[in-house]
Amino acid sequence: MSSVSPYSHSWDTPRAHRVPPGGARCAGATPGLVSSSTSDSHLLVDASEARARRCRRAVLTAARLHVQEVPRWRVAMLTLTYRPEVDWQPGHVTALTKRMRDWLRRRGHELRYVRVAELTRAGRVHYHMLVWLPRGLTLPKPDKQGWWPHGSTRIEWARRAIGYVAKYASKVEDFASGPQGHSFPRGLRLFAVGGLSGVARRIRAWWMLPAWLRDEWGSEHWPRRATGGGWVSRLTGDWLPSPWRVSGFNLGRIVLTTTC
Fold first, then answer.
1. Distance CA 150, CA 203 (A)
2. Which of 126, 144, 132, 141 lies closest to 65, judged by CA?
3. pLDDT digit string, tens, across residues 124-136
4. What angle do CA 48, 49, 53 make, to 5 degrees?
5. Which of 88, 130, 132, 141 has an alpha carbon within 20 to 30 A of 191's alpha carbon?
6. What is the CA radius of gyration of the chain?
7. CATH ID of 18-258, from 3.30.70.1910, 3.40.1080.10, 3.30.450.40, 2.20.140.10
């Protein structure tokens, strides 16, 4: 497995979104959130768009870590669709994932995957899933195996796994605000990842932290959320408050107020 470091993943936090050193907690910007307007002390956040942006960052980070950990494995692109008479239900894709995981474990491997949900123009849910496979192993079609009895599946080999993930993760942002009058069903997970090593999971968790927090504390702190708000360093036990607090709602957007 290739060695990985939190600091080697500058691709996940573009410089334009980084908070300037020395002003991390009071820089007037909240990376990862999508604002409709800002002032020196207030920020309006569209929760749906923020959720979609977080999805994109999460799956791209996970996909890149998979590629680093198993660079010689092939990547199968799996598309899951529903028949017209079948609607999405919460346990459908979870059951499929379990069957795929069991199939791979019987062959001595863990299931490594990244999954993204998408809406068709008609508002129908379908899934795009990348599955990392050792050379010489081919994933059977889930519909033929009875793992996906809800519709059809398609499998292709990915030449550029990261580009494929980026393409479909970006579509989540397009559909998050429902430009065509559709929205994801309540309870649906926009994305899921699995199979990363313990080290890679920690690195992914690090890059999912707010940028202001990463600038305040180095990766050796491995912060966790504190009861009642803020963050606690696992290294020192120090507590750090968030620079923003929720102060209300305005036309469906969250109103954040700076605490600085």
1. 35
2. 132
3. 999 999 999 999 9
4. 120
5. 141
6. 20
7. 3.30.70.1910
Q: How far apart are CA 174 and CA 93, in angstroms?
A: 22
- What does the DSSP assignment read for 106-139? TTT---EEEEEEEE-TTS-EEEEEEEEE-TT--P
Residue 36 pLDDT grade (very low, low, confident, very high; cuts 50, 70, 90): very low
Given 3-state DSSP classes, what are the helix, strand and coil percentages for the chain, each rounded to the nearest 5? 35, 25, 45
At what angle are helices 47-69 and 161-176 packed, to 10 degrees?
170
Q: What is the pTM of this model?
A: 0.78
User: What residue segments make up the domains of the chain, in order of their start?
Assistant: 18-258
Which uninterrupted H or E stretch holds 224? strand 224-225
Q: Are 62 and 17 in contact (CB under 8 A)?
A: no
Can you read off the two tokens belonging to residue 219? Answer: 């990766």
